[in-house]
């Protein structure tokens, strides 16, 4: 009945169209440029340099050209899916005299049956090119919906030959999405409406708002056009659209089926037709009873054991013929198998990779195959027939051309035909085996040799045999309606479940729920990142997407910088209050994203640079504004600096330094000279500036110059938003959790008590709860109506150790998961046919329960649920038994421990755990450097449980990879004069690798090889040589396909990889010379053989610091050292003497040149004075240096003593760390005995701290 629904929409509303003219909406993207080589085919090719896949538009290495002997040349494209094509473009072969001057365009859905494209006037010939490099573009009058396209050259250059490069423009064809056109809106809703059951359709319109409801699913949309009224024709048609003047002829296929309860604006249309009212007339066979034939279906329930066995009735004409219809969602499954009369030959008809395949097994090793169809697992009914006649087996699918297999001898089918699968260990037909899976779907209208099979007799045991079948119904179910994939994820399905393709959405997870980006620059800093461009998602899994910002981490505060479209100075003249100058600012983030960013930041500011000449900001007579700016909410603002929004003043007035103290702004003095009213806006609720209006620059000599700086914010209010619970009966309450279909909950906690409930929300029967159930176990439990589900993560060390621990729990319609710190992820798949919605109705309790029992005592911070941060501090201020914030040195936002060092509370202060940092020292700030020679290398081997165990289970590895996503962080410093040189390589057991090398010219190169059979991605950020004897700092950060690179302080680059694949099973990381490397490319191998001569310092790869491990744990199996390796302070010395940004070097060189030029212009008298001064200064310097050298020598002695003590501490720490990784049984005792340096400090003796 879907046709009825669409026809009804078309006729009654007059605003919905099924003829989706692609020319009226944005559907003009290139489709050929990203196609793989396998998508290009041709009738022939003249040489290896003229192969079909060279035929992409603007490609400079040739183009396609057929053989000269090819009488009917053609070039064919497989667009990989059905596309809506709106235009084509052609070129000749690059740099040649070969081009096509005229051609035909054919299209097909299968690649077998073709149809010629004709334009509106019936012309099918396209005009081609007149030279080799010009582009001729043809936009279609009506679009093509097809997968395959074929270009057939008709004419070509008489002085050359056929040469072709092409591009095709369009978009993905998907008739389930909403598409807008000028004045028309088309929307499709519903699925599987041809199931012989009644379906309800309701259409409601109010002005431009339209609601379309099919059964229980509703789609809301708005019509296009200027007016709100609906101008319909004088006739309303139901069941079909008749062609005017031609009774019985329809514009499109009319509806076949039954309609009841047909109302239009309360009028019963069927009742008027029954009473033969004159305003009603019918065309064709219309009756008032529903007598549709009922087609009986059978459901094959199991993909492993379902089958239907029927006897092969003899055919009077010899051979055999089988017909049936099927529908399924599965891409693979056996449809039919039969033993032929000449053993061991047999026929198998199966769905393979969404196509229909017929296989003739002539022996155990030999077979013949033919395939047809495309996406036969689309859930629709498909008709298939299989017949054997005249030494041929013919397969026909729907209305497509038949496919045949030639037989050597005439043969009949065996005694039995097996539909849907093969029985296990069948003595009647031992050769019948399921090739992959049995069929899981529906079948009907089965006939053998033109005799219909009565499936009722099968059900009654009178005919054939079966297993795992359900008769009289088709149990197919559309699991993508409604679409549970969030954030624009594409839904696909099999018979039992659905899948979400999150590609390009910026989200990951089973339902595309989790953002792949951090929520703020502060969060990136905590992961060890440095300044650069990052994508942040301010609301995490909420509805807002990610936006790119610049994170400035060079100061103590981490600044988030958001730019807009007009950051350069702008000069304004000729504006008046009646016709003011107006500039609207478009930021790199949406208004909603900006609001979320500002709201989550501690402070924001924006600089307004405003210079003026005879241009006032305020009217000097009445004080009314002549210029103003507009805030994020659209409100006019007239203050030009500071954080006092109610004051009409400029910065000079706030600082009391205006040039004329009679005015509040310098510009209001209205002088002929330039004045300046630059200020910084810092009232963050009004930021950013969305518009500026200037209205007083129309007088003679009057002008203004302004520049609005980027929005700059620092701090993340959510990171340290904490509450302390010090009574078991205390809790914070919030509104009911809105988490029917999905919920992600994350927070940090620290405590000393053995158990307690972190949060709980209840319904009538449903509930959700996260708790510390024992000192080392966190549990996540919930019930959505299928019975209680409990996930538990057990730590090898106690979690009530008064240190911060991270918890993340997620539940969606596909699965549930629980993560605690860096422990292995625990997950559980949801029931495929169970309850989906979590129905809650009580308040959300944080830190306790409604029963006031088992409450949590300790600290909770950074509570985030579904992308929304809960303000614990604000609620704690008015709740007894709870206090805002959390006591302790490690509970603030100040960075006590640097470079990924972890702050650990102690009774007498705190310590910095530097085991996960490449740096050392009390605060993880001291460089760890090593000098290498040509034969030196350090190899760090990754062992269990960090990589291998993560991939033991296919299901666990899939979920783990989704939750952690493809991501690497690398940072190191180096100094060398050698090139080529190998700096760092990371290799995997699956032959992937990352390499960072210096090329022959000394430039830096980063190599990513994520697929064995693809070319590696190679990036070279700067052509200048880094083998200059200076210290250079490199940071590389990857998120999916995006690679961010920073060199020193002045080179920031972003690159895009060809794949977002993960490094699977990392084997080792090597610094310096590489031995072997048979999987590396030639240039990488050459650099690896040369090794590295120089200084490497503070090397970090994710959580691994290989240089520290090499220095302090040489006996460990994790670290392998070759050649001469010497601990050095080269990193510290180079950093203090030779490390300069590249821009600083250039500036210094220019300054030296300028100084030299100025010196040559001094006269001799000045030179004499200078010489005298130099002699005096030299004597002073000698005296100062003498004292300095004495002090420096004494300091070196003290440092030497401290360094020996520090090295002893480091050595002890890394021996313990190696024991932790090498001896799992010893982990519980030694997990936190790492590199620690105690900071003495007095502690709070508050009774609350006992639990914290």
Q: What is the count of β-strands?
A: 80
The rounded Rg comes to 38 Å
Tally of structural domains: 7
Reported by name, the CATH topology of the largest domain is Jelly Rolls
Q: Helix segment count?
A: 14
Major β-sheet annotation = 9 strands, antiparallel
CATH architectural name of the largest domain: Sandwich
User: Which percent band covers the strand fraction?
Assistant: 25-35%
How would you describe the shape?
globular
Poorly predicted spans: 1-24, 175-183, 944-965, 1138-1172, 1190-1250
Helicity range? 10-25%
Structural classification: mainly beta
How many angstroms does the end-to-end distance come to? 65 Å
Give an account of the 3D structure:
The protein is mostly beta strands. It folds into 7 domains: 29-176, Jelly Rolls; 297-471, Jelly Rolls (Sandwich); 478-511, Laminin; 547-716, Jelly Rolls; 722-884, Jelly Rolls, CATH 2.60.120; 890-916, no CATH class; 926-943 and 966-1127, Jelly Rolls (Sandwich). The chain is built from 14 helices and 80 strands. The strands form 16 sheets. Strands 37, 38, 39, 40, 42, 45, 46, 48 and 49 form a 9-stranded antiparallel sheet that branches. Strands 1, 2, 3, 4, 5, 6, 7 and 8 form an 8-stranded antiparallel sheet that branches. Strands 18, 20, 25, 26, 27, 29, 30 and 32 form an 8-stranded antiparallel sheet that branches. A hairpin with a 5-residue loop joins β70 (993-998) and β71 (1004-1009). α10 packs across α13. The longest helix has 59 residues, at 1164-1222. The protein is globular.
């Amino acid at each position: 009945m879907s046709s009825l629904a669409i026809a009804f929409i078309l006729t009654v509303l007059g605003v919905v169209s099924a003829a989706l003219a692609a020319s009226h909406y944005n559907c003009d993207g290139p489709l050929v440029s990203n196609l793989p080589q396998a998508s290009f085919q041709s009738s022939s090719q003249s040489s290896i340099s003229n192969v079909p896949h060279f035929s992409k538009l603007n490609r400079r290495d040739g183009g396609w050209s057929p053989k000269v002997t090819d009488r009917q040349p053609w070039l064919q494209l497989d667009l990989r899916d059905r596309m809506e094509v709106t235009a084509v473009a052609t070129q000749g072969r690059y740099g040649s005299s070969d081009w096509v001057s005229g051609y035909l365009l054919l299209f097909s859905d299968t690649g077998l049956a073709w149809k010629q494209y004709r334009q509106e006037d019936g012309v099918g010939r396209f005009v081609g090119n007149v030279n080799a490099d010009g582009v001729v573009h043809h936009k279609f009058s009506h679009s093509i919906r097809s997968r395959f396209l074929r270009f057939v050259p008709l004419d070509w250059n008489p002085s050359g030959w056929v040469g072709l490069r092409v591009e095709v423009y369009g978009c993905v064809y998907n008739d389930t999405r909403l598409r807008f056109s000028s004045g028309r809106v088309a929307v499709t809703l519903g699925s599987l409406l041809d199931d012989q059951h009644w379906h309800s359709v309701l259409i409601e319109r109010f002005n431009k708002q339209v609601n379309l409801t099919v059964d229980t699913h509703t789609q809301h949309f708005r019509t296009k056009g200027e007016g709100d009224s609906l101008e319909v024709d004088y006739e309303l048609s139901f069941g079909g659209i008749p062609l005017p003047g031609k009774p019985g002829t329809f514009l499109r296929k009319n509806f076949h089926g039954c309609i009841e309860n047909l109302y239009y604006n309360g009028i019963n249309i069927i009742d008027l037709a029954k009473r033969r009212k004159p305003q009603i007339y019918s065309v064709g066979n219309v009756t008032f009873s529903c007598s549709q034939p009922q087609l009986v279906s059978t459901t094959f329930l199991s993909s492993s054991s379902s089958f239907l066995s029927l006897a092969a009735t003899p055919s009077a004409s010899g051979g055999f013929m089988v017909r049936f219809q099927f529908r399924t969602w599965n891409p693979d499954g056996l449809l039919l198998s039969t033993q032929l009369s000449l053993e061991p030959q047999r026929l198998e008809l199966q769905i393979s990779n969404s196509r229909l395949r017929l296989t003739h097994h002539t022996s155990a090793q030999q077979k013949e195959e033919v395939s047809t169809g495309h996406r036969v697992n689309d859930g629709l009914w498909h008709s298939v027939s299989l017949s054997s006649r005249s030494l041929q087996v013919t397969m026909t699918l729907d209305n497509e051309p038949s496919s045949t297999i030639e037989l050597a001898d005439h043969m009949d089918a065996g005694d039995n035909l097996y539909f849907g699968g093969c029985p296990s260990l069948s003595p009647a037909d031992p050769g019948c085996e399921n090739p992959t899976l049995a069929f899981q779907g529906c079948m009907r209208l089965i006939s053998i040799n033109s005799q219909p099979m009565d499936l009722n007799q099968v059900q009654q045991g009178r005919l054939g045999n079966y297993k795992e079948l359900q008769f009289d119904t088709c149990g197919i179910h559309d699991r993508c309606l409604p679409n549970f994939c969030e954030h624009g994820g594409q839904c696909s399905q099999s018979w039992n479940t659905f899948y979400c393709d999150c590609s390009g959405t910026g989200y990951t997870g089973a339902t595309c729920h989790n953002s792949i980006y951090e929520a703020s620059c502060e969060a990136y800093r905590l992961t060890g990142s440095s300044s650069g461009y990052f994508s942040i998602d301010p609301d995490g899994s909420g509805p807002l997407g990610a936006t790119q910002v610049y994170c400035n981490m060079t100061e103590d505060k981490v600044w988030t910088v958001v730019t807009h479209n007009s950051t350069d100075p702008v000069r304004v003249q000729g504006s008046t209050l009646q016709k003011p100058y107006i500039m609207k600012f478009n930021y790199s983030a949406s208004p909603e994203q900006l609001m979320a960013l500002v709201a989550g930041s501690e402070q924001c500011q924006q600089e307004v640079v405003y210079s003026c000449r005879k241009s006032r900001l305020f009217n000097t007579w009445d004080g009314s504004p002549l210029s103003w700016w507009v805030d994020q909410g659209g409100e006019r603002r007239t203050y030009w600096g500071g954080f006092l929004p109610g004051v009409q003043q400029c910065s000079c007035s706030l600082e009391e330094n205006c040039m004329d103290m009679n005015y509040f702004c310098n510009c209001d003095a209205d002088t002929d000279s330039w004045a300046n009213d630059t200020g910084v806006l810092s009232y963050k609720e009004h930021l950013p500036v969305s518009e500026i209006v200037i209205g007083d620059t129309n007088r003679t000599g009057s002008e203004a110059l302004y520049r609005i700086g980027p929005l700059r914010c620092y701090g993340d209010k959510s990171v340290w938003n904490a509450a302390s619970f010090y009574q078991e009966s205390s809790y914070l309450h919030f509104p009911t959790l809105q988490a029917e279909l999905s919920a992600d909950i994350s927070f940090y906690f620290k405590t000393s008590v053995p158990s307690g409930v972190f949060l709980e929300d209840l319904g009538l029967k449903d509930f959700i709860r996260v708790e510390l159930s024992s000192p080392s176990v966190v549990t996540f439990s919930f019930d959505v109506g299928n019975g209680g589900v409990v996930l538990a993560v057990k730590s090898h060390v106690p979690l009530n150790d008064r240190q911060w621990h991270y918890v993340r729990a997620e539940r969606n319609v596909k699965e549930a998961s629980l993560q605690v710190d860096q422990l292995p992820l625990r997950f559980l798949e949801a029931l495929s046919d169970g309850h989906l919605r979590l129905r809650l109705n009580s308040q959300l309790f944080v830190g306790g329960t409604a029963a006031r029992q088992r409450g949590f005592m300790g600290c909770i911070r950074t509570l985030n649920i579904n992308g929304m941060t809960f303000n614990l501090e604000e609620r704690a201020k008015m709740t007894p038994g709870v206090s805002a914030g959390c006591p302790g040195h490690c509970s603030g936002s100040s960075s006590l421990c640097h470079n990924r060092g972890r702050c650990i509370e102690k009774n007498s202060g705190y310590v910095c755990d530097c085991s996960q940092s490449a740096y050392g020292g009390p605060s993880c700030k001291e460089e760890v450097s090593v000098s290498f020679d040509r034969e030196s290398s350090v190899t760090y081997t990754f062992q269990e449980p960090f990589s291998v165990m993560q991939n033991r289970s296919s299901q666990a590895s899939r979920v783990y990879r989704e939750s952690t996503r493809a991501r690497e962080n690398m940072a190191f410093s180096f100094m060398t004069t050698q090139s080529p040189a190998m700096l760092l390589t990371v290799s995997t057991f699956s032959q992937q690798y990352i390499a960072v090398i210096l090329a022959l010219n000394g430039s830096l190169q980063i190599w990513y090889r994520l697929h064995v059979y693809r070319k590696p991605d190679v990036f070279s950020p700067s052509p200048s040589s880094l083998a200059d004897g200076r210290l250079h700092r490199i940071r590389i950060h990857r998120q999916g396909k995006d690679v961010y690179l920073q060199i020193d302080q002045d080179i920031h680059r972003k690159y895009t990889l060809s794949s977002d694949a993960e490094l699977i099973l990392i084997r080792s990381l090597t610094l310096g010379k590489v031995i072997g490397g048979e999987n590396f490319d030639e240039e990488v191998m050459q650099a690896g053989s040369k090794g590295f001569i120089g200084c490497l310092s503070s090397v970090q790869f994710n959580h691994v610091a290989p240089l520290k491990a090499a220095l302090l744990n040489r006996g460990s199996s994790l670290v392998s050292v070759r050649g001469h390796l010497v601990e050095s302070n080269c990193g510290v010395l180079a950093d203090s003497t030779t490390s300069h940004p590249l821009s600083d070097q250039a500036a210094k060189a220019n300054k030296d040149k300028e100084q030299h030029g100025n010196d040559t212009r001094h006269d001799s008298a000045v030179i004499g004075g200078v010489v005298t001064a130099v002699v005096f200064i030299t004597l002073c310097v000698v005296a100062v240096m003498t004292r300095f050298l004495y002090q420096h020598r004494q300091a070196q002695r003290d440092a030497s003593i401290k360094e020996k003590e520090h090295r002893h501490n480091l050595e002890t720490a890394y021996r313990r760390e190696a024991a932790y990784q090498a001896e799992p049984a010893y982990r519980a005792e030694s997990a936190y005995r790492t590199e620690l340096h105690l900071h003495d400090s007095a502690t709070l003796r508050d009774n609350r701290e006992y639990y914290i």
